[in-house]
C-alpha cells in the first residue's frame, strides 16, 4: 500500500522508490470515469504533492483500456441537469483532469489501451506519454453531440501536436492509433504491451535520479515558457529558477556525488 493512501476505483502502489503508480480500476467498464472519480484524481494529486517521498506519478489503466471517458450511465444524466448545476459540475470535472497538469511533480501516462474523451484529456495532462502498441486516442466528445473541447483538451492538444493536427482530431473525433500518435508527437514512444509498465517505470526512475526541486522547477519552466510572450520573458524565468536552485543543499550534494562518482542522496532541501 502506498503512503499516498487508498481510493475507490483507483489502485495506488509504490513499485519503486519515489514512484507512485496509480491504476484506474474499473476494468469491466474500460476504466470509464464516474462523477466521483474526478474528485478522486484531484485528491490523489493533492496527496502526491504533499508526500515528500513521492517524486513521480505514473498513471495507467487496469486491463485492456486506459480510460474510455465519462461512464455512459453518468453521461445520460447531463442533459437533464439545470444549466447552473451542469456548469458547476463541469468545472469540477475539468479541475480533476487539470490537477495532473498542475501537479508540481512529473506525471507519466502509461497508456495501455483506449484513451477516449475525458480519458484522452487525462493522457494529455501528463508530462510524458508512453503508449502500448494497443493504445488509441480520440476526442470522443464530438461523437456524442458535444463540443470537442473538454477537460482542457482544446488547450493541451494544440500545444502537443500543433493546431492543424489538433483541429482534425477534434473536429472529426476519429481514432488515432499508437503509431500515428507517436509520429505526430502525441506520445513519446510506443512499446509492446508487456513492456509498457517497465518502460514507464524506467523513465520515472531516471527522473528520480535528479533533485526534487530541480524537477519541480523544470516542469514549471516548461509549462510556463511554452507560452512565453518573448525570449526575454522565458530567460527571466529560467534565470530566476537557476538562482533558486543554487541555494539548495541538493545542488551541493549533486556536485559532491558527481565528483565522487557515487549516486546522490537528495533530501529535497
Walkthrough of the structure:
The chain has 269 residues and is α/β, with parallel strands linked by helices. The chain is built from 11 helices and 10 strands. Strands 1-2-3-5-7-10 form a 6-stranded mixed sheet, sandwiched between helices. A 4-stranded mixed sheet has the order 4-6-8-9. The protein is globular. 38% of the residues are buried. The mean pLDDT is 93.
N-to-C series of helices and strands: EEHEEHHEEHEEHHEHEHHHH
Averaged pLDDT: 93
Structural class: alpha/beta
Strand content: 15-25%
Number of strands: 10
The helix content, as a percent range, equals 40-55%
Strand order in the largest sheet = 1-2-3-5-7-10
Separation of the first and last Cα atoms: 26 Å
Shape verdict = globular
DSSP summary: helix tally: 11
Query: What summary fits the major beta sheet?
Result: 6 strands, mixed
Could you list the spans in which at least 5 consecutive residues all have pLDDT below 50? Answer: none
- The radius of gyration is 19 Å
Keyphrases for this structure?
269 residues, alpha/beta, six-stranded mixed beta sheet, four-stranded mixed beta sheet, 11 helices, 16% strand, globular
In short:
The protein is of the alpha/beta class and 269 residues long. The chain has 11 helices and 10 strands. The chain has helices at 35-50, 72-75, 83-102, 118-124, 153-161, 163-172, 178-183, 196-208, 212-225, 231-246, 249-260; strands at 10-16, 19-24, 56-61, 65-67, 107-111, 114-116, 128-132, 136-138, 176-177, 189-191.
